[in-house]
Amino acid sequence: MKGSVKSVEELHYARVKKVEIDLGDGSLAVEVPEKVLEEVGWNPSPGDSVEVELSRERPESLEGWDIVMGGYVYLKKEEENVIYASLGGLKMTASGEKFYGEFNVDDKVYLMVKLPGKT
Known about the structure:
119 residues; CATH 2.40.50.140
């Protein structure tokens, strides 16, 4: 699904950036190590267009995806329609009815991101 970077927050204590992505009918906030962002050549900025997929299934091919992270859902908050996942110790939140209805606590989750200007 297509999205747009809404905000970027630097978490200096861990050399991690928290990137919030607006997906229209939901949003995603994910912590990404600065080293990973440097390796893929992306300095996220508000307004950047990205393509995002959140799935319980590991992608058959990683080709075409710039960032792929895997982890587990550890919390769901019904009153907020939010799921929380740990991606190797990095926090991801996904809000919106689609995500809330699709994932349950202890589900494996994969986040794939395709960056602007990449093929």
